Amino acid sequence: MSKQILVLPGDGIGPEIVAEAVKVLEVANDKYQLGFELSYDELGGAAVDKYGVPLADETLERARAADAILLGAVGGPKWDTIDPAIRPERGLLKIRSQLGLFGNLRPALLYPQLAAASSLKPEIVAGLDILIVRELTGGIYFGQPRESKVLENGERMAYDTLPYSESEIRRIAKVGFDMAMVRGKKLCSVDKANVLASSQLWRAVVEEVAKDYPEVELSHMYVDNAAMQLVRAPKQFDVMVTDNMFGDILSDEASMLTGSIGMLPSASLDANNKGMYEPCHGSAPDIAGKGIANPLATILSVSMMLRYSFAQVEAANAIEQAVSVVLDQGLRTGDIWSEGCQKVGTRE
Ligand code: ATP
Ligand code: MG
């Protein structure tokens, strides 16, 4: 039976990096007889331009019907001044929440060839292999009420709300423990339980879930300490599980341990491992259209798609191996370039 892949190139460097990842996907499709059929639509600014909204209803329906989604990135200066209700990022948040993609996997893995590109000393990052599990459909990015207003005294004020329910925490904690079980059996739950009520519930629920995973060594860490530990001694971590905003920030931080944010893939999964796959980075407007963006995060996201949504382990491994071969050959986009390597563009 054929499998439907919806491709959403998005904005900025999105179309450039997705074009390269699609080539890899098509090679895997042929070689491993995956039976994938690709179709295309728009998300983000490109959708605002085409449909007047960052996620059209028909696009959402296509996404629901697809077996997996490959996304580039959304946003850019062109849409910075539009009505906040139709900002490109709204489309991204909406597709994640409408599809129930609460489990965001962000592996930060150092390819040994890139040790020189890491922001940390080689001895601190050698062999680095961390998985950040980020809650993706709750917390402060979605909490209501939220408001910007002008007070009676004329002062402007704004607030957001950071809600988490027990069930939201439990299901993401389970993803963290399940991942720990197939990796190093070590899970660090990151919160701010010394200050936030939502984090206190988070910690309590994670402790409850831990009872079902006696083999996993669980630790808790405040997010400020976790941010520090990630650059001090990142290899102390195996799997980290954390909320939406902390996970967003910590994974950008972790990316620099691997050489570049252009190396970090991601999977966003629902309860049945249906997923959307995208690089962790954004639309990189500063380099969009120049043909110099690193496509490896998106190509590695294709590998994650094959692994998590289709259990095509051999094909997934082959793509990771191919990335390694390219790095062995000394080919580097600018973001991971170092002395003695050959600088190439996105297509090369
Ligand atoms: P967003 O809000 O969409 O995440 P952002 O403002 O955080 O956007 P990013 O797109 O994440 O910006 O980019 C942050 C920096 O990393 C930019 O300088 C960008 O050029 C660089 N960058 C991001 N992705 C890549 C890539 N694939 N290759 C090279 N550089 C990249
Ligand atoms: Mg960003």
TrEMBL record:
Cofactor binding, per record: Binds 1 Mg(2+) or Mn(2+) ion per subunit.
Entry's Gene Ontology molecular function annotations: 3-isopropylmalate dehydrogenase activity; magnesium ion binding; NAD binding
EC class of the enzyme, as a word: oxidoreductase
Entry-linked Pfam families: Iso_dh
Keyword Magnesium: yes
Gene3D superfamilies associated with the record: Isopropylmalate Dehydrogenase
Residue positions binding substrate: 96, 106, 134, 224
A single Gene Ontology CC term: cytosol
Keyword field contains 4Fe-4S: no
Self-association and partners: Homodimer.
Classification via HAMAP family: LeuB_type1
Role according to the record: Catalyzes the oxidation of 3-carboxy-2-hydroxy-4-methylpentanoate (3-isopropylmalate) to 3-carboxy-4-methyl-2-oxopentanoate. The product decarboxylates to 4-methyl-2 oxopentanoate.
Protein name, UniProt field: 3-isopropylmalate dehydrogenase
Organism whose genome encodes this protein: Geopseudomonas guangdongensis
Lineage, uppermost ranks: Bacteria, Pseudomonadati, Pseudomonadota, Gammaproteobacteria, Pseudomonadales
